């Protein structure tokens, strides 16, 4: 009995351990509310010395760890190296780390991430700057995720690190929808090359300053991360410095302005705006470079060199918003700010950042939450660079370190508050800003229509609508008018309006931009990173226009697709008198998942048929759904993602038997008719009711029925809509009868005629 209980206790303990480990492993690598855990094992004790030696000899060389455990998940043969410039020192135990999980085994990753970049908090008494810096930046532009991680090496606790998402090809793919274009880390190259004769040596910092028409002259100032790109980089530098009228074609100007505004408000000088480095640029598929912020460990004024000299704490708190506006050594600032609209947009973005920082003490609350989360791990970190009292106090208050490098680190919250108080008094921001409100758009938007957008705008000279139909596209400008001539009610009433053609798109993203002589305003305020969205009805397909007409769930020998396979098939019928686009429409056999199969951009012509092969193979050329039909029966749904337009309940079918519509009835077909009218079986005898004449058909307001007298006796009619609902009850008719259709909705209807001898069903089209 004792053994039995012992076994059960062991089983419970193992279960608890299993659940616990899986909980750790399941947590997101960059979850802001949890601390990650990394355990590195080397087969020797002098690992620190070995890493130092490798870093001195070759900064890219790695030491192989025999075992790495990340949140309970075990890896082997992992490449480890030290990283960093000022944050690295061979005398320190706690140096920044670069951990490459796939260094030897290419398939090793954690939740899709294969590289960890870990910062040691060298210049941050609060230990919060980098995590909060990335959190804030991600409100305005794509940026890395960041959180905290405890690092152990050979079972010894090295300390609490910042865990920052690597700006990799995956990052570019997720944010810029490509990964193989020109890509640069804007830091001086670690491995120098011999530059061509004639290259300027005056400015080697990666500030996008012009030095030569030879792209090879820039190879020591930038670190290329792609297979190509030097000529693209030169083009950017040349246009920025020498032809700014073309700058929007090669640079995402709005994203660059957000970066500059963030650097200024938070006095982030270890960046382009100060030291002239610590950022990346990636060229998207639109041939525009995107600026990406990086290395935010000295966010909130921990680095005091403005690029023109070191500043005191009071000078940083009262930093002018116009820093470097006329400094050609910082062309990304000087050249952009020479453009009046770009400058007004910059002040608008700076004001938004300021207002967000002050709103409801959000960042204070976040800082306190993070501080509480890491308090024990930070206290236990004997290798941190500042005392625990500094960690506890620097979130709110300044901290002065007298040795070995005496300096004052601004309190995160006190700096932000002081910056806001100062900026509100500056001539650049103490101005009347335009307001944008009461935006009105159509309640229903369809393809190929003019989308009218209006807004109430005050204190503005001009107003512009920026639109795009895909996140990968560039926003296009359209002037909004207040002249009474553009559906804007009346001239000079403050209501601005314009119209944008929807085309064949399914969604439109937009924001509104207004400016006066001093500053701009945007709606939403964080545009272009945030924007308004309008859904465009996939097309104005009405009920009774598109039908699931016929299908086959066991195609044994009946018909082959283009690949030579006998696949299930679904036939759609356009019963209308117009060509219809199917882009944005779906087919599904699961009512809980209406968007199961998105029909490609296809036009089905009036009164014709479209075949979709239900073979679960989207790789084949043509129309192939991502599901098959069940031989035992199921229901198909044609829909726009939310509204079902038509459905067809299919019974169990034998081989080469199809199922579909015959007027308002449904039946099996032993003689299927793919891509053609169904072979319907009727009870109409030859010459019975065959001479009937219905005209006009299609009709707009009425149609006439004429039946020659053939001795058939009295004839009655009734009319059904496409759903089988009777809209005209049985009634006897004369040889000539007129039916009024003015109150009918456009679509397909069915006329049933009955006599003592036979009956007949005919189709009617109301247009």
Explain this structure to me?
The chain is built from 12 helices and 41 strands. With 767 residues, it is α+β, with helices and mostly antiparallel strands. Among the domains are: 435-535, Immunoglobulin-like (Sandwich); 546-669, Sandwich (Immunoglobulin-like), CATH 2.60.40; 693-766, Immunoglobulins (Immunoglobulin-like), CATH 2.60.40.10. Strand 31 and strand 32 (644-650) form a beta hairpin. It starts with a helix and ends with a strand. Mean pLDDT is 89; it is low at 1-24 and 682-690.
- Note the gap between the termini: 85 Å
Largest sheet: 9 strands, mixed
* Fraction of residues in H or I helices: 10-25%
Q: Which class of secondary structure composition applies to the elements?
A: alpha+beta
Number of DSSP strand runs: 41
Name a few traits of the molecule.
single chain; 767 residues; alpha+beta; Immunoglobulin-like; 9-stranded mixed β-sheet; 5-stranded antiparallel β-sheet; 12 helices; elongated
Topology at a glance:
Layout: H1 2-26, E1 35-41, H2 47-57, E2 63-65, E3 67-70, E4 73-75, E5 78-82, E6 97-100, E7 115-119, H3 129-137, E8 146-153, E9 156-164, H4 169-176, E10 183-186, E11 223-224, H5 230-242, H6 253-265, E12 279-283, E13 289-293, H7 313-317, H8 331-337, H9 340-358, H10 362-379, H11 388-393, E14 399-401, E15 407-409, H12 412-423, E16 435-440, E17 450-458, E18 462-468, E19 476-479, E20 495-501, E21 507-515, E22 520-523, E23 532-535, E24 546-552, E25 568-574, E26 580-581, E27 586-588, E28 597-598, E29 603-604, E30 609-614, E31 634-639, E32 644-650, E33 658-662, E34 665-669, E35 693-695, E36 702-706, E37 715-721, E38 726-733, E39 736-740, E40 747-754, E41 759-766
Parallel strand pairs: 1-8
Antiparallel strand pairs: 1-3, 2-5, 3-4, 5-6, 6-7, 7-9, 8-9, 10-11, 10-12, 12-13, 14-15, 16-17, 17-20, 18-19, 18-21, 21-22, 21-23, 24-25, 24-33, 25-30, 26-29, 27-28, 27-31, 31-32, 33-34, 35-36, 36-39, 37-38, 37-40, 40-41
């Amino acid at each position: 009995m004792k053994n039995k209980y012992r076994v059960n206790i062991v089983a419970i303990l193992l279960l608890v351990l299993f659940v616990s480990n899986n909980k750790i492993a399941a947590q997101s690598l960059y979850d802001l509310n949890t601390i990650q855990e990394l355990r590195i094992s080397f087969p020797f004790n002098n690992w620190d010395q070995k890493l130092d030696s490798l870093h001195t000899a070759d900064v890219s060389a790695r030491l192989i760890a025999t075992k790495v455990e990340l949140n309970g998940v075990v890896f082997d043969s992992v490449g480890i190296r030290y990283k960093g410039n000022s944050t690295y020192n061979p005398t320190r135990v706690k140096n920044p780390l670069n951990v490459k999980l796939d260094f030897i085994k290419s398939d090793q990753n954690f939740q899709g991430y294969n590289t960890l970049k870990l910062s040691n908090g060298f210049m941050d008494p609060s230990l919060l700057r980098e995590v909060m810096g990335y959190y804030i930046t991600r409100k305005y532009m794509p940026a890395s995720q960041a959180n905290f991680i405890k690092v152990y090496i050979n079972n010894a606790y090295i300390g609490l690190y910042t865990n920052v998402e690597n700006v990799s090809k995956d990052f570019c793919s997720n944010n810029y929808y490509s990964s193989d274009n020109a890509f640069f880390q804007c830091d001086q190259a670690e491995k120098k090359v011999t530059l061509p004769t004639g290259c300027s040596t005056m400015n080697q910092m990666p500030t996008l300053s012009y030095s030569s028409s030879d792209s090879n002259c820039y190879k020591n100032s930038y670190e290329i991360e792609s297979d190509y790109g030097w000529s693209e980089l030169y083009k950017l530098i040349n246009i920025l410095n020498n032809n700014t009228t073309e700058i929007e074609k090669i640079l995402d100007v709005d994203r660059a302005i957000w970066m500059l505004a963030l650097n200024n408000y938070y006095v982030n000088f270890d960046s382009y705006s100060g030291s002239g480095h610590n950022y990346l640029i990636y060229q998207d598929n639109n041939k525009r470079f995107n600026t990406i912020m990086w290395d935010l460990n000295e966010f909130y004024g921990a680095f005091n060199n403005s690029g023109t000299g070191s500043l005191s704490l009071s000078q940083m708190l009262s930093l002018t918003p116009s820093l470097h506006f006329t400094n050609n050594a910082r062309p990304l600032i000087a050249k952009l700010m020479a453009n009046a609209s770009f400058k007004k947009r910059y002040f608008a973005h700076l004001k938004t950042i300021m207002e967000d920082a002050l709103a409801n003490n959000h960042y204070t609350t976040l800082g306190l939450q993070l501080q509480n989360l890491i308090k024990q791990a930070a206290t236990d970190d004997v290798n941190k660079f500042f005392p625990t009292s500094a960690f506890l106090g620097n979130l709110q208050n300044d901290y002065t370190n007298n040795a070995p490098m005496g300096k004052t680190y601004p309190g995160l919250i006190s700096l932000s508050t002081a910056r806001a108080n100062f900026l509100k008094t500056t001539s650049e921001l103490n101005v009347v800003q335009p307001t944008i409100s009461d935006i009105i758009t159509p309640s229903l938007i369809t393809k190929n229509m003019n989308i009218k957008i209006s807004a109430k705008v005050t204190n503005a000279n001009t107003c512009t609508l920026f639109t795009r139909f895909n996140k990968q596209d560039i926003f296009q400008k359209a002037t909004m008018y207040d002249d009474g001539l553009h559906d804007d009610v009346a001239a000079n009433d403050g209501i601005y309006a314009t119209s944008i053609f929807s085309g064949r798109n399914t969604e439109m993203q937009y924001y509104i931009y207004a400016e006066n002589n001093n500053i701009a305003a945007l709606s939403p305020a964080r545009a272009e990173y945030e924007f308004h969205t309008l859904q465009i009805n996939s097309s104005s397909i009405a009920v009774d226009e598109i039908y699931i007409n016929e299908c086959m769930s066991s195609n044994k020998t009946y018909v082959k697709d283009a690949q030579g396979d006998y696949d299930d098939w679904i036939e759609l019928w356009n019963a209308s008198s117009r060509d219809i686009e199917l882009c944005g429409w779906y087919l599904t056999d699961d009512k809980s998942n209406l968007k199961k199969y998105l029909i490609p951009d296809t036009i089905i012509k009036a009164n014709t048929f479209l075949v979709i092969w239900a073979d679960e193979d989207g790789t084949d050329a043509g129309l192939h759904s991502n599901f098959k039909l069940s031989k035992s029966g199921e229901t198909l749904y044609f829909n726009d993602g939310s509204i079902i337009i038509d459905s067809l309940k299919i019974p169990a079918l034998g081989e080469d038997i199809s199922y579909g519509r015959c007027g308002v009835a449904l039946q099996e077909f032993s003689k299927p008719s793919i891509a053609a009218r169904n072979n319907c079986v009727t009870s109409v005898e030859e010459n019975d009711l065959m001479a009937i004449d219905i005209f006009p058909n299609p009709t707009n307001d009425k149609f006439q029925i004429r039946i020659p007298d053939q001795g058939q006796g009295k004839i009655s009619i009734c009319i059904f809509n496409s759903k089988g609902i009777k809209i005209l009850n049985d009634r006897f008719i004369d040889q000539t009868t007129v039916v009024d259709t003015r109150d009918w909705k456009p679509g397909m209807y069915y006329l049933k005629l009955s006599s003592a001898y036979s009956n007949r069903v005919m189709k009617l089209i109301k247009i």
